[in-house]
Amino acid sequence: MYMGNQSYWNKKFEARGPELMQPESCLVEDMPCLPQSGTALDLACGDGRNAVYLASQGFKVTAVDFSSIAAAKVKHFASKMDLDITVLQKSLCKKESFADFGEFDFVVINHYRLEPHFYPIVAQHIKPGGILWVNGFYKIPEDNPDIKQEDVITQTDFQELTSLTCEDSKIYEIGTRKFIRWIWRKKFINPAVQ
């Protein structure tokens, strides 16, 4: 239910009210190591806290979520703040949802466990030298019964991600909750090797 039920997430985003949440603190801390401009894709963007942050930093952002309430809220924040954000309402559990995204300098997946077989598809949408930033639960938090083992991101999730190189990963805590964050870079293709 936590990661895949549209009704659950619509109610959750509705209950959050009209205020924009702060961007993920780990993302903000990592920005000096990440692309400083260009295009960004925020997958499972929720109600837009990271998409809005990236757009405010000058990125041209595409934000994707399956919740109609989340999509409406991202559009509202983008309009209110005059930011360049394209909002797409799509399920990330369907292969066809990844078609026609284009290529990006920077892809963010925050607090969402993408099904591992979709990572190579996501990689196709990253420009050579571009970054994939993934952040999520390292362990099931004791204070959130909605999160299950299948929501925890592990190293094995990235086994099929052969066109990217892991540049950094870290485990960190916020209160009693443990998270893990990865930074992956798309390899440059040497035409002489082909």
UniProtKB/TrEMBL annotation:
One of its GO terms (molecular function) is methyltransferase activity. It comes from the Bacteria. SUPFAM superfamilies: S-adenosyl-L-methionine-dependent methyltransferases (SSF53335). One of its GO terms (biological process) is methylation. The keyword Transferase applies. Keywords: Methyltransferase, Transferase. Residues 41-130 form the Methyltransferase domain. This is Class I SAM-dependent methyltransferase. It comes from Caproiciproducens galactitolivorans. The lineage of its organism: Bacteria, Bacillati, Bacillota, Clostridia, Eubacteriales.
